[in-house]
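Predict the holo structure. Ligand: tryptophan.
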Amino acid sequence: MEIVVSGIRPTGNLHLGNYFGAVKNFLRLQDEYKCFFFIANWHSLTTHPHPGDVTNNVRKILAEYLACGIDPAKAAIYVQSDVKEVLELYLFLNMNAYLGELQRVTSFKEKARKQPENVNAGLLTYPTLMAADILIHKAHKVPVGKDQEQNMEMARKFARRFNTIYGVELFPEPESYSFGGDAVKVPGLDGSGKMGKSEGNAIYLIDDAATIRKKVMKAVTDSGPTEPNSVKPEPIENLFKMLQIVSSPDTYDYFNEKYNTCQVRYGDLKKQLAEDIINFTHPIRERILDFAANTDYMDKVAKEGADKARESALHTIREVREVIGFK
Ligand code: ADP
Ligand code: TRP
């Protein structure tokens, strides 16, 4: 049976980018594969060295995972720091990871630029920890958004390198997974780029209706097309991309037709988009609030998930020790 692994850092609430880039695929995969979905709390220390109440940050994401429909009866849902075997694999992988290649990773360079006072070794070795998360379960598929492509390439490289150095076929090469093939990038509505927590443009699953309306109404637009069938500039393309993601095909076609005939009214489009987002997020928000109130249940889910993940991790790490020579 093929194995699936993915994780999200508990540095804030889940937003539409996380949902459509990653979590939606978790839901598709959990029925068919052996899945491990975790909360990457060690990874969050690379950018948030003082996370404050780690337990609470973790419970927040856990409630959101469950509210989205990740099912503990189908998938192992666990907290990264509950599976210490990952650290041992991280150490072994780091012995065969080279400074040059780690320094060339785009997200490392970006984060180093954003936090020049804290270019720590954890940030540099972020891809080896991520590879350890994946390889510890010998995963075949990793559902992540487009921004994780380079980290995935590193994970594959580390898997191949380990197999070659030790002359084994221990690790499969993990592939990124997105339903329909192409990795998803959910845009922000501030004109350019992706939706993200650190971009400050995120619409969260937990946002209430008024907040969502406010955020969508603020979306960047222009003065409208003057020629029929014009190419959409990026901010407008992004709005349409969001319609495509959350609205019905009819709604998309309606506004697209209006755009192509230069009759589009962005105010109407945004109002419709806001309502469609609210329709989508509202039931999830209700469930998040329910789960969040039930900490005993969440602790039980995390414990059971950790037991399953540790069993799988222990199996791999024993093989790894043996292969390297720790008999
Ligand atoms: P953020 O960028 O908000 O910090 P994370 O880096 O924690 O989000 O991402 C968690 C998961 O969500 C990853 O799989 C990532 O690829 C996915 N993701 C985040 N933002 C987007 C987006 N705008 N479009 C598609 N996927 C995304
Ligand atoms: N780097 C991922 C992100 O920022 C989080 C992550 C850590 C992850 N370990 C992973 C994702 C293993 C998939 C598999 O979103």
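The chain has 14 helices and five strands. Strands lie at 3-8, 34-39, 76-79, 141-143, 175-177.
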